[in-house]
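Blinded run. Sample ID left blank on purpose so nobody reads anything into the name before looking at the predicted structure. Input follows.
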Amino acid sequence: MTPPNLSLVFIILCFWVTLWLVHRFLIQPVTTVLEERNSRIDSAEKEWAAKNEALVSATARLEEELSEAARSASRAREAYCAEAQAARRQRMEGARERADEELRVAVADLAREAETARKELHNQATLLAQELATRLVGREVLS
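Blinded prediction complete.
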């Protein structure tokens, strides 16, 4: 029988030593780095999700506050418009009453002036009639 081939044993031994060295100094550190990287990625994704949820929540809260402020402003605007309309109506009624009073005074003054003018015209007509009669008759006519 022939002695076993020692080179084969030596090759197998070199293979296992190389495999152990590659695993110890290359695969384990790379695996550790990859696991740390994945761990950081997972924690960053969780942190992003939490912050994104906080952002969405804050945005929704701000939008609700904004819409409430808009509704409040609308109610205030409507109240101010109603007040302004009431004040306008009141001023218009006051102005209308003053105008009606001024119109009544003006109508009364015109009626008095018209009556005075009628009396004066009647007196003038009488005087003119007397004067015309005096001229036609040639002597003074008394009424």
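Unblinding after everyone has recorded impressions. The radius of gyration is 59 Å.
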